[in-house]
Here is the input.
Amino acid sequence: MESGILAVPLQTAMKTEIPLSLAARRGLMGLCPSCGKTKLFASYLKQVEACPNCGAHFGRIRADDAAPWGTIIVVGHVFMPMMFFVSLDAFMPFWAGVAVWAALFAGLSMALLPRSKGLFIALLWSTRAPGVNNG
Ligand SMILES: [Zn+2]
Here is the structure.
């Protein structure tokens, strides 16, 4: 009879564990890594204090430089080489080509930055990194 009392919290704790890959996917989509039902960000890069649906806390999680680093890795090392293989000289003057590439990379960076931050917040939350209060 006393073992049943002890078993309930352990089972509850095991059911709330979210696989790292699922939490990462939810973070990439800008959703709560815990439940996936609400938005992780209150504005462009400001994460919510806590999920209104499941109560998971994200306010203390600091992705710091990881999000820009991830964005630079993808934009600078994956998409930037395209610039060397695709020549816009046949279609427009050199200055216009530079403007097109700059606008493309700026837009791509703006689109990827919140996703990168969501990924790193999800990874920090899921791994319970030191200093993170998962509530
Ligand atoms: Zn949630």
Remarks:
- The first helix runs from residue 2 to 15.
- The radius of gyration is 20 Å.
